[in-house]
Write a structure and sequence with these properties.
255 residues; alpha/beta; 8-stranded parallel β-barrel; binds phosphoenolpyruvate
Length: 255
């Protein structure tokens, strides 16, 4: 049984006042839910991580970083290591979010190094994959996400790869208000699970959680989560409003 995992990616939003207030409001709202049924994480900007870890302490909310660098320390100006993220009390980090791939220009090889560094540093990476609109329209969705997954997991034995949550986020659905239909998402999720069974084995593929991300809102969360291979949601915009994020969590666990 895969436990639903709902994560809120705050991107480059919030500040030293609104972030702690947001995580406290979410934590307060979660007291109504049976938290044994769901994992919840928030993913704030780097500079607020320690503050958000402190503000989330009384709740069951885990905290993650939006990125890491793959070296542990040294002359890498502007970068943050897995060790540092773990040191401030985080459990998760995103690797290869579409904005890192397509705005910053990260390539599969770099993302793979980050996934290795995250696991070796004691973090649980959320590896994001997804096709551009033109790739979908050219019928290349499967080819693109297969390449991203194969490269993302390259060199990881199953015992380490089990730390990964995979997130399927079609780029055309992120921040656009245009969600993949539950059927479109399920089709890709099923394909990804089959691919992971080939790369590892069936029991690995049965256990790994695959989140969907891309304009998830309170009114589409339940329908997405009803699909067999959708095990969680990576939520951007709607995670910035406590009521919306809580409604998504509620819809995801069917409470
Ligand atoms: C995201 O940031 O990963 C995301 C899916 O954003 P949004 O929900 O705003 O589309």
């Amino acid at each position: 049984m895969r436990k639903p995992f709902i994560a809120g990616n705050w991107k480059m939003n919030t500040d030293g006042h609104s972030g702690p207030a947001l995580v406290k409001a979410v934590g307060q709202g979660l007291t109504q839910f049976d938290m044994s049924k769901v994992n919840v994480a928030v993913i704030p900007p780097f500079v607020y991580l320690a503050q958000i870890v402190a503000a989330a302490r009384a709740s069951r909310i885990a905290v993650g970083a939006q990125d890491i660098y793959y070296e542990q320390k040294g002359a890498f100006t502007g970068e943050i290591s897995a060790y540092m993220i773990k040191d401030v009390g985080c459990n998760y980090c995103l690797c290869g979010h579409s904005e890192r791939r397509h705005v910053i220009g990260e390539q599969d090889e770099l993302i793979n190094k980050k996934v290795h560094a995250a696991i070796n540093g004691g973090l649980l990476p959320i590896l994001c994959v997804g096709e551009l609109l033109e790739e979908r329209e050219a019928g290349k969705t499967e080819e693109v996400v297969e390449r991203q997954v194969k490269k993302g997991f390259e060199g990881l034995i199953a015992a380490k790869a089990a730390a990964v949550t995979l997130a399927y986020e079609p780029v055309w659905a992120i921040g656009t208000g245009r969600t993949a239909t539950p059927a479109q998402a399920q089709e890709v999720h099923a394909m990804l699970r089959k691919l992971l069974a080939e790369l590892y084995d069936k029991s690995f593929a049965d256990d790994i959680r695959i989140q969907y991300g891309g304009s998830v809102k309170p009114d589409n969360a339940a329908e997405l989560m009803q699909k067999e291979d959708i095990d969680g949601l990576l939520v951007g915009g709607a995670s910035l409003k406590a009521d919306d994020f809580l409604a998504i969590i509620k819809a995801s666990i069917g409470d």
